[in-house]
Amino acid sequence: MNMSKRQGSPPRPVSPRGAATAWRLAPCLLAGLCAAGAAELPSAPPEAVGMTSDGLQALGARLDQLVADGAFPGVTAMVARRGKVVFAHSAGLLDVQTGAKMRIDSLLRIYSMTKPVTSVAAMQLVERGELRLDDPVWRFFPGWKTMTVLAADGETREPAERPVTVHHLLTHTAGLAYGYDGDSAVDRMYREAGLIDDWDYLARDTGELVSKLANIPLLFQPGARWHYGFSTDVLGHLVERVSGLPLDAFLRRNLFAPLGVKDAYFDVPPNVVHRFGTNHIIGAGGELAVQDNPREDPEFIGVTFLSGGGGLVTTVGDFMRFCLMLEGGGAFAGTRILTPETVAAMTRDQLPETVQGGAGGFGLGFGIVGEGAPPGGPSPNSYRWGGAAGTFFWIDPAERLVGVFMPQRIGMPGGIGRSLERLVYEAIAEE
After folding, report:
1. pTM (predicted TM-score)
2. Where are the alpha helices (DSSP H) in 101-205?
3. Is residue 2 part of a domain?
């Protein structure tokens, strides 16, 4: 998952004393008791939408226990059903160095959960007729007209058999890699070209990224495989090229302001940086350590690389607005962002039968839960994604259920997320 990091000093151990101060925070079950970040969201008692207060209290207790056990220093979470938020929870520390507590309105790194947001922006342009899914990318980036593909020998460059299209970018079938998470010849070329180093974006902006990618061969023929990479960063720059606006300005005007999103930033402004805290990783000795913070490693301050693939910082409540818009068929609080038909297309598997996407199917910006989904979790045809700091969300159309969980821990074990999902589904009342 996209890290979009500028690394600073080595990870520092989290203070056990600082972490312990957060364990006493209680969950907030929405019944008019939530903090400002969630109060404006439509809410209801759990029983009014077919869930149980006891079940959601068990979810809150589990989150508290995960903090107490040191799985992560802090977390925010929300659950909504039938368009109403029924659970909002904050536990632990936002910043283990200052002792600031996690709150519902805390600003958190969502990394690759930015990808669905950028994908929605692109689909807004498609709906307006300014962009088509089958448009070759070279129409907007002429240097991409003569793309090559690295042959099986790892040295020969072959002409691309077909152009990279907007659809390829949305489905991660363009043949792009990341460079930080692999060691193929293409990954090495990315690093040699100065695109990325470890988890750091090195290009000044996405325009430079797109220009340099034009001179590096693709990992495979466009459309032949699914591979996670720079596709959504290229898509974000495509939004800029087509709209004539920087990506942050486009999102603010066309998505965030209409949805009532107040806090979503590529570049965290000084007046809210006190709500932005530390990010964490398991250190060499197995202890939870600070990976970066807003003071010594300001990766989201003074930003020039507007990463459509992983650059947003936001709150759990504002991301829930985005999710409720999707669950509502493209509309939220009387404001339409996309048509129901577009949302339906985005949230169904768009990959050919011969192509496997990640852990299952893949739509236009979302992972799709397949028919073989295990019981006790999201239903088949649910859609979802996550971020490198352990954040994840899913939207289950069959249950009209949305879950958003936002810790700040790189490399969080997958079993933690699955256990939280199960508790959400166990809170659904029997009918």
Report:
1. 0.93
2. 114-127, 166-171, 185-192
3. no
Q: How far apart are CA 214 and CA 224, in angstroms?
A: 19
- Domain assignment of residue 154, yes or no: yes
SS3 168: helix
The angle formed by the CA atoms of residues 281, 382 and 421, to the nearest 5 degrees, is 45
Rounded Cα distance between 342 and 183, Å, is 37
Domain interval for residue 191: 117-243
Main-chain dihedrals φ then ψ at residue 99, nearest 5 degrees: 85, 5
How far, in Å, are 69, 239, 428 from residue 275 at the CA level? 24, 29, 33
- Report the C-alpha gap between 5 and 214 in whole angstroms: 23
Helix, strand or coil, per DSSP, at residue 71: coil
DSSP letter string over 92-109? EEEETTTTEEP-TT-BEE
The separation between CA 91 and the C-alpha centre of its own chain, rounded to angstroms, equals 21
Residues 56-106: pLDDT tens digits?
999 999 999 999 999 999 999 999 999 999 999 999 999 999 999 999 999
Tokens found for residue 92:
């632990």
Identify whether residues 287 and 394 lie together within a single domain. yes
Q: Say whether both 142 and 206 belong to one domain.
A: yes
- State both tokens at 28: 């907030």
Q: Sort 273 into a burial class: Cβ within 10 Å, 0-12 / 13-18 / 19+.
A: middle
What digits encode the pLDDT tens for the residues 114-148?
Answer: 999 999 999 999 999 999 999 999 999 999 999 99
| Closest to 2 measured CA to CA, from 423, 410, 388 | 388
- The span from the CA of 305 to the CA of 339, in Å, is 30
For residues 71 and 93, membership in a common domain is answered with: yes
